[in-house]
Write a structure and sequence with these properties.
This protein is about 65% helix and about 0% strand. The protein is mainly alpha-helical and about 90 residues long. The radius of gyration is 13 Å and the shape is flat. The termini are far apart. About 20% of the residues are buried. The model has no long low-confidence stretch (mean pLDDT about 95).
Length: about 90
């Protein structure tokens, strides 16, 4: 797990340096996978209708509920690698 953890941390650092801003859909996927990797399943109440960004983040995180931590980390690393390769 230590190797996976270090690769995950490296990917989290590298995502900040990606030249092209990913689409909102990809950003939400990154957010959801990161949160699932670091905090586990979504918790708390879904934000209200007036908090569109918070609601979108909550819904994205809810979409990966139940995904094992290691699987979420691998998916996050893979997505960051795709983004780096694309530009």
């Amino acid at each position: 797990m230590d190797d996976l953890q270090s690769r995950f941390e490296q990917a989290a650092a590298e995502v900040q340096g990606i030249a092209t801003r990913p689409s909102n859909e990809v950003l939400l996927k990154l957010y959801a996978l990161y949160k699932q990797s670091t905090a586990g399943d979504v918790s708390g109440k879904r934000p209200g209708i007036t908090n569109l960004a918070g609601r979108a983040k909550y819904d994205a995180w809810q979409g990966v509920k139940g995904m094992p931590r290691a699987e979420a980390m691998e998916a996050y690393i893979g997505l960051v690698d795709e983004l780096k390769a694309a530009g």
